[in-house]
Amino acid sequence: MEFLTEFKDKLYETFIVDNRWKELTNGLKTTLLITFLAVLMGMVLGFLVAIIRSTHDKTGKLKFLNVISKVYLTVIRGTPVVVQLLVFYFVIFATVDINKILVAVIAFGLNSGAYVAEIVRSGIMSIDNGQFEAGASLGLSYPKIMMYIILPQAFKNVLPSLANECIVLLKETSVAGYIAIQDLTKGGDIIRSATYEAFLPLIAVALIYLVMVMILTSLVTKLERRLGKNDRN
Amino acid sequence: MIEIKNLCKSFDNGELTVLNGITETIEKGEKVVIIGPSGSGKSTFLRCINLMGRPTSGEIFINGTDILSASEKEVNLLRQRVGMVFQHFNLFPHLTIRENITLAPVKLKLMTKEEADKRAGELLIKVGLSDKADSYPAQLSGGQKQRIAIARALAMNPEVILFDEPTSALDPEMVGEVLQLMKELADDGMTMIVVTHEMGFAKEVASRVMFMADGVIVEQAPPEEFFRNPKSDRLKEFLSKVL
User: Fold this and answer.
1) A17-56 per-position pLDDT tens digit
2) CA atoms within a 13 Å half-sphere pointing along the CA-CB vector of A66
3) A137 closest CB neighbour out of B79, B96, B137
4) CA distance B151 to A91
5) DSSP code of A69?
6) Is A144 in Cβ contact with B138 (below 8 Å)?
């Protein structure tokens, strides 16, 4: 019984006093906002780069854009995301008056874009060349073949990997605290430094991440099942 | 209608020559069947006609247009007039049968969605698969898939259809239904160029049979003469093996 009372006190101390739970809810909002916008940016960028790269591989066109894409992929995938975030904040946008959250969105979006690009490109390349040929034989142009024949199939094939990338990104935003953004992780840390009690706030943060990831996973499973309907035999 | 002059194609910077100077004219309404041992270049030849593969040198004229110097846009327009049926069907697995047939006419703005759906309905009756309009390709047998692939090509109202070994990937009991449909097309007057191993089809449907070997057309004749009275030793040997 004594243990329970103590636990209750600690819960009260950690989350209720001074409305400390607000650190977590506000932090969660920030985390979700950054993740959502960065995922959007990463998807758009990733699809563009993937299309540029595979168009170059298949037709030999877009040489210049392909070189730029390759440099982008090499740099982003060759350096840690925290370093990228710091460079964006303290170097590239150092002299610009810009919202920190926007900096984080740009940094995480650019980072995610590189991984999305490679995922989508592998999806495009995995589609049988006969699909291209069938489209071409009907007189469809390359962009139309991409749009209506290749990408819908590629997207379905890479959906699990893309979803995984979203989940990774959600968790990666936890380093946003490096540029003093009060995201979910930072929120937990603020409580920890106020109460000198690490267990409860950090476990709470971990649980919130876990629940969000589980929700995302179940959404993707549902989506996959819907997209899988034409694979029935 | 199709005029081919001195067509050559090689791979690996000339190390492997697949087509070695083919000159040929194909008129409207002809049913040309191309036979020959594997590796003879017959599929490569067929695929050059709609530029699925680009020849190394030579000239191809379709209705007087030099397609090798045509722009990409012109090539796409040309391909609308030249249908193709593939060995492995290449249906679009993410689309229903109806959508497979209507995709190109609708996206190329040749028909409205309603017109294309109506046309798809007619074509499905023609190929005997009206009940499959809302199925997906994975739910069809090989023979059914190939019949849909033919319907998809027909939806573009092509002037000529190229068949690249259309029955080679089928189970034996499904070959007949596809050949029957092709025969009906031939009877309707469609210009057809068919690469196949089906000698019966060649005998019955072809207006002209071509024998290819080592990248050249060795011999060609109307089917009766072709099969009854082969001239070259190469063809005699080939026929003795396949008949």
Assistant:
1) 888 888 899 999 999 999 999 999 999 999 999 999 999 9
2) 14
3) B79
4) 60
5) H
6) no
The three-class DSSP label of residue A90 is helix
- The β-bridge relationship of strands B208-213 and B57-62 is unpaired
Chain B residues within 8 A of A131 when measuring between CB atoms: 90, 92
Across the interface, whether the CB atoms of B94 and A128 are under 8 A apart is answered no
How far apart, in Å, are the Cα atoms of A197 and each of A6, A20, A182? 13, 13, 19
Distance of alpha carbon B47 from alpha carbon B30, whole angstroms: 18
Of all residues in chain B, the percent with pLDDT exceeding 90 is 88
Q: At what angle do helices B142-154 and A129-137 cross, to 10 degrees?
A: 40
B87, B164 in Cβ contact below 8 A? Answer: yes
Count helices and strands in chain A by DSSP H and E runs: 10, 0
Q: Report DSSP state, residue B56.
A: S
Tokens 């995995």 belong to residue: A126
How many whole angstroms separate alpha carbon A62 and alpha carbon A65?
5
For residues B86-97, give the mean pLDDT. 95
Touching check for B78 and chain A: CB below 8 Å?
Answer: yes
As a whole-number percent, the residues of chain A with pLDDT over 90 amount to 74
Please tell me what DSSP assigns to residue B53. S
Could you report the predicted ipTM of this complex, rounded to two decimals?
0.91
**pLDDT digit string, tens, across residues A64-107:** 999 999 999 999 999 999 999 999 999 999 898 899 999 999 99
User: Average of pLDDT values for B23-36?
Assistant: 94
Instruction: Give the A:B interface size as CB pairs under 8 Å.
Output: 83
| Interchain proximity B76–A137, CB inside 8 Å | no
Q: Which residue from B52, B81, B138 is facing A231, i.e. has the nearest CB?
A: B138
pLDDT at A233 over 50: no
The amino acid that residue A26 corresponds to is N
A163, A148, A142: which is closest to A52 by C-alpha? A142
> Is the sign of the CA dihedral B108, B43, B159, B186 positive or negative?
negative
B90 vs A131: CB contact, 8 Å cut-off?
Answer: yes
Is A133's CB within 8 Å of B93's CB? Answer: no
What lies within 8 Å, CB to CB, of B182 at 6+ separation is B150, B163, B166, B192, B194, B201, B205
Name the pTM for this structure.
0.86
- Residues in B closer than 8 angstroms to A135, CB to CB, are 104
Q: At what angle do helices A129-137 and B72-81 cross, to 10 degrees?
A: 80
Closest Cα in chain B, distance from residue A136 (Å): 7
